[in-house]
């Protein structure tokens, strides 16, 4: 019992409620790969890959063609020995979102096999977390309206996308603050600023009396010295996202003293590296947030259970499924406003 007897890939297309605009990219939808593992007991486990060429250099068409390779690699393996499967998939350096989807499907199948939810397999540290919701780049009027609606819906952590126009970003942040006082803010530049621009943004926002909980990836992913410069010259905590894929990336960030926060995304690291990163960051006395790409509810489910299981994160940026037109909610969690939880 517990042996994998089949692996199935299915392409899933989703549309955003409105175009999602970040630095250098506007998306109207996403094409993901849903992975289904079937065990000899009849139990089934699901994972989802949300490829990103911008972040991971992945193309969904290439990943989909790897179905036979994945099937040949893990067929006959026992999900009860899931670490052995993780060790194999850790070799999939070029396809991190596919690695993540396989690992999540393995844990999901193991969960179904033994009747224990994934978050408890991972430690069961929490029963409830709270996600932010994102204001994407848009006209000033639309940014203010979106932030106002998010705040009225009960979200008290708001993520604001910036990075394309410094002066407009500062004005937008000031106006959003006026209509959402009491909220916490994660400001994400998605690599859009130079180090000096990032410091200017932070200092000007600070002088306006606006507090930012996390200033995320202000500079290019490869500019670790620039990231460190911003960290040591910004009044706000600085986070790495695109700079932090694997545990080796995070080890370098810690050694270089380049960040206050690391944003883990399972689509970048998979569960195996994410578990290592959690322990590394805790040991370094730094902080963690958990993010997502463009996952549907079945993909966000993976991150919700990871967050509940480890209890490691100060902030949770798990709102992608809330922005997609998805016919059926398929996550193994409940959601009420910003709260995400599993009922025992």
Task: Give the key terms.
2 domains; eight-stranded parallel beta sheet; 344 residues; TIM Barrel; alpha/beta; Enolase-like, domain 1; four-stranded antiparallel beta sheet
Task: Describe what you observe in this structure.
The protein has 14 helices and 15 strands. The protein is globular. Helices cover 42% and strands 24% of the residues. The mean pLDDT is 97. The strands form three sheets. It has an eight-stranded parallel beta sheet with strand order 5-6-7-8-9-10-11-12. It folds into two domains: 4-116, Enolase-like, domain 1 (2-Layer Sandwich); 121-341, Alpha-Beta Barrel (TIM Barrel). With 344 residues, the protein is of the alpha/beta class. Helix 5 packs across helix 12 (266-283) and helix 12 (266-283) packs parallel to helix 13. The longest helix has 19 residues, at 96-114.
Write a short abstract of this structure.
With 344 residues, the chain is of the alpha/beta class.
Separation of the first and last Cα atoms: 26 Å
Supply the CATH superfamily name of the largest domain.
Answer: Enolase-like C-terminal domain
Radius of gyration: 20 Å
Taken together, the total number of domains comes to: 2
- The order of strands across the largest sheet is 5-6-7-8-9-10-11-12
> SS-based structural class?
alpha/beta
Percent strand: 15-25%
């Amino acid at each position: 019992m517990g042996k994998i007897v089949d692996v199935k890939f299915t392409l899933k297309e989703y549309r955003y409620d409105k175009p999602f605009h970040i630095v250098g990219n506007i998306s109207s939808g996403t094409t993901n790969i849903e992975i289904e593992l079937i065990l000899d007991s009849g139990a089934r486990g699901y994972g989802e890959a949300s490829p990103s060429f911008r972040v991971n250099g992945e193309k969904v068409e290439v990943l989909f063609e790897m179905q036979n390779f994945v099937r040949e690699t893990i067929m006959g393996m026992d999900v009860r020995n899931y670490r052995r499967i993780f060790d194999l998939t850790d070799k999939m350096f070029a396809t991190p979102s596919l690695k993540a989807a396989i690992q999540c499907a393995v844990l999901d199948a193991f969960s179904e096999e033994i009747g224990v939810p994934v978050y408890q397999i991972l430690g069961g540290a929490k029963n409830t977390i709270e996600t932010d919701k994102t204001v994407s780049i848009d006209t000033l009027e639309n940014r203010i309206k979106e932030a106002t609606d998010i705040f009225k819906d009960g979200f008290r952590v708001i993520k604001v996308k910036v990075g394309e126009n410094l002066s407009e970003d500062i004005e937008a942040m000031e106006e959003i603050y006026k209509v959402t006082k009491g909220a916490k803010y994660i400001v994400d530049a998605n690599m859009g600023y130079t180090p000096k621009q990032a410091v200017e943004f932070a200092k000007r926002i600070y002088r306006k009396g606006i507090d930012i909980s996390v200033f995320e990836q202000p500079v290019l992913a490869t500019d670790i010295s620039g990231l460190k410069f911003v960290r040591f010259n910004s009044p706000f905590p600085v986070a790495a996202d695109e700079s932090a894929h694997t545990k080796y990336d995070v080890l370098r960030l810690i050694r270089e003293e380049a960040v206050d926060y690391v944003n883990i995304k399972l689509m970048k690291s998979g569960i195996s590296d994410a578990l290592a990163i959690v322990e590394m960051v805790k040991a370094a006395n730094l902080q963690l947030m958990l993010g997502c790409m463009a996952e549907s509810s079945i993909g966000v489910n993976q991150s919700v259970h990871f967050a509940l299981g480890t209890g490691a994160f100060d902030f949770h940026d798990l709102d992608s499924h809330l922005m997609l037109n998805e016919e059926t909610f398929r996550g193994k969690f409940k959601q009420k406003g910003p709260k995400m939880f599993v009922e025992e």
